[in-house]
Amino acid sequence: MDHKEPWDKDYKSRGRLWGGSARRLPDLPEGSLVLELGCGNGKTLASMISRPWKIMAIDISFQALRLCGPSKAERLAADVRYLPFKDGVFGALFAFHVTGHLFQEGRRMAASEACRVLEAGGKIFFAEFGMDDLRYGQGEEVEPGTFKRGSGILTHYFSTDEVKDLFSSLKVQSLEVHSWRMRVQGQDLPRSEVEAAFQKS
Ligand SMILES: C[S@@+](CC[C@H](N)C(=O)[O-])C[C@H]1O[C@@H](n2cnc3c(N)ncnc32)[C@H](O)[C@@H]1O
């Protein structure tokens, strides 16, 4: 399946898709080389650039990269399943809501690539929607827990065990479900995210 086309189309027709405040970023040593996977229109990148890090950001969509605007971060059109980087070069990786847009095999490939490019002692910070999220079940179920919307974009909803399994070669530093409520058309509905941090030995 082509992952690029539905995303390019969505960004082209709707512009910046992700706004609001970016998630809290961890403290990393000055000069750390960090990689953001699936940077989208640069929501997380905007808060990363105030940090004293060397930043590389990739996304499969040219349209998304264009919407990031000027930045000190290096940006590259690339697929998280086939990272164009050498082994062990990054001190940290951010993977927020990107692997969840892949099929199971793609998620495994992306996790394996993420672990490959991470240096010893390096960390991966991960966030994806959880199975209790209000959007679980919306669209056509194309694999267990993975739904395709009309736009052609896939979204997979994770359990904590699945996330642990995906990064089983790494040490778990934290792994939790973050739940909150959101009011939609007068209804109080559940949101859910699995957040995790892993470290390479
Ligand atoms: C939900 S957005 C998340 C954006 C950003 N990480 C954030 O949290 O604001 C998902 C992004 O992943 C990108 N993406 C989807 N599949 C990809 C792939 N195989 N390789 C790289 N990027 C991909 C999409 O183009 C999209 O910009």
Written description of the protein model:
- This protein is α/β, with parallel strands linked by helices and 201 residues long.
- The chain has a single domain (4-14, 30-199), classed as 3-Layer(aba) Sandwich (Rossmann fold), CATH 3.40.50.
- Helices cover 22% and strands 35% of the residues.
- The chain has 5 helices and 10 strands.
- It has helices at residues 4-14, 43-48, 62-67, 104-117, 160-166; strands at 33-37, 54-59, 74-77, 90-96, 118-129, 140-143, 146-148, 154-156, 171-184, 187-199.
- A 7-stranded mixed sheet has the order 3-2-1-4-5-10-9.
- Strand 1, helix 2 and strand 2 form a beta-alpha-beta unit.
- The longest helix is centred in the middle third of the chain and has 14 residues, at 104-117.
- The chain binds S-adenosylmethionine (SAM).
- S-adenosylmethionine is lined by residues 3, 7, 18, 38-40, 43-44, 58-61, 64, 79-81, 96-98, 101-102.
Look at the structure and give the CATH class.
Alpha Beta
- Reading the helices and strands in chain order gives HEHEHEEHEEEEHEE
Cofactors and ligands: S-adenosylmethionine
N/C terminus separation = 34 Å
Identify low-pLDDT runs: none
Helical coverage, percent range = 10-25%
Helical element count?
5
Lateral strand order in the biggest sheet: 3-2-1-4-5-10-9
Q: DSSP strand (E) fraction? A: 35-45%
Which structural class matches the secondary elements? alpha/beta
What's the mean pLDDT score? 95
| Overall radius of gyration | 16 Å
- Name the overall outline: globular
Largest sheet: 7 strands, mixed
